[in-house]
Specification:
By secondary structure, this protein is an alpha+beta fold. It has six helices and 21 strands. A hairpin with a 2-residue loop joins strand 16 and strand 17.
């Protein structure tokens, strides 16, 4: 009996365990199957509004002078007078005396040449008298003389020589007077002094550099522009007449402390070659009265005061330039995030995503102008992780219309 129990007891335990497990499985609650709800992705859209949108290019530029002059004297001598403004950073007005060289030696030369001119004049008068005497003496025998002998008898070569001497003396006298006037060097235009090396008592020659001046009536700002965007701007001599004004521009220089130096300008010309590094075209933007010192400019903006009105635009500065271009017709402005693969957008059609290819007409900092959208079409502006054609979506909001002028383009 014990042997029988030894074999039957494990079998009975196993059978009991199976029966208990089955009873537990049958006793679990039954959950009714529910139909799976339709999954829709919430998105925000922008209603397309094709219209004419203004464009603006934002770029960096460098301030450069239009006219730069190294002043050198035309005569030699010792400096006896020097302008008090002939210092680095000094402002000079057109016609102001810059330096004056000792003119006593040049005055002596003028006196000597004046005497030589008087002698040459007297010699010519005397020679004309001799010619008249010779004509009287030879009047009965001129027909007997050869042509060369007749010219010699009438002293024609002597008269030409006296006339040439007079012309030479007059030219030397005029040169001596010009040299005397050149002992004073004057400023050829309203100028800013970049550097100066002239000192009182210094002996100068025509090879001596006295100072480096730049004209302050206007500066240039050299701006790098993508070649593909030149067509959107008016450039004199390229797509408008050479004497026509170019596209308007605004130059901004951050002077620190919340002060921004601001000047207006226009495109003046296109340089003939692209930048060697970035392969960008280069245009020159002309800025009038860059230092803010011209009376006309101050009268034109009397409301300006404080640092904004007085701080100058400094040469060599890197500035921000905003150039206004011609408006682009039939374009819709959308945020950059709405552009897919640089040539398409997602539209919501019957609560599903539909791809639409578009033409990018202009790229701004945060927005782009595109063509190919019809009025009222909903453009998806929500960033989507893995969108697919026909994906179910739900419009939960609409973005407000954008303003193209507030999104200048990137260079």
């Amino acid at each position: 009996m014990q042997r029988l129990l030894r074999y039957l007891l494990p079998v009975l335990v196993l059978i009991g365990a199976v029966a208990a497990a089955r009873s537990l499985m049958l006793a679990k609650p039954q959950v009714a199957a529910r139909p799976q709800a339709k999954r829709e992705l919430p998105v925000t859209v922008l209603r397309a509004q094709p219209a004419s949108h203004p464009i603006s290019l934002q770029a960096l530029g460098e301030v450069k002078p239009v006219h730069r002059l190294v002043v050198q004297p035309e005569v030699s001598g010792r400096i006896v007078e020097r302008s008090a403004s002939l210092l680095p950073g000094g402002l000079l007005h057109k016609g102001d005396p810059l330096i004056r060289v000792d003119n006593r030696d040049h005055a002596t030369v003028v006196a000597a040449q004046a005497a030589a001119l008087e002698q040459a004049t007297a010699a010519l008068v005397e020679e004309r008298g001799r010619k008249q005497v010779a004509e009287y003496d030879w009047q009965a025998n001129l027909d007997k003389l050869s042509e060369d002998a007749r010219a010699f008898a009438l002293r024609e070569s002597h008269g030409r020589s006296a006339q040439a001497s007079l012309s030479s003396a007059r030219a030397q006298f005029d040169k001596a007077r010009r040299d005397l006037g050149r002992t004073q060097v004057k400023v050829p235009f309203d100028a800013l002094v970049l550097d100066a090396s002239a000192e009182l008592g210094q002996l100068v020659t025509p090879q001596t550099a006295l100072a480096t001046l730049v004209a302050i009536d206007r500066y240039w700002v050299e701006v790098a522009v993508p070649v593909s965007q030149l067509i959107h701007f008016e450039i004199p001599g390229v797509n408008v007449a050479i004497d026509a004004p170019g596209s308007a521009a605004k130059i901004l220089l951050d002077a620190g402390g919340g002060v921004v130096i601001e000047r207006d300008g226009v495109i003046e010309r296109l340089l003939g070659q692209v930048d060697a590094r970035g392969r960008m075209a280069r245009v020159l933007v002309m800025v009038e009265d860059p230092l803010g010192v011209q009376p006309a400019a101050l009268k034109a903006a009397p409301e300006q005061s404080g640092p904004r009105a007085t701080l100058p635009l400094l040469l060599g500065s890197y500035v921000r330039v905003q150039i206004a271009g011609a408006p682009l017709p039939d374009t819709t402005e959308i945020p950059r995030v709405a552009l897919v693969d640089d040539h398409a957008v997602w539209l919501v059609v019957d609560d599903k995503l539909t791809a639409r290819e578009v033409e990018v007409a202009w790229r701004g900092v945060d927005t782009v102008l595109v063509r190919g959208l019809r009025p009222g079409e909903p453009v998806v502006t929500t960033p989507l992780a893995s969108p697919t054609e026909g994906m179910a979506v739900r419009i939960e909001g609409e973005s407000p219309a954008l303003i193209a002028a507030s999104a200048p383009a990137r260079p």
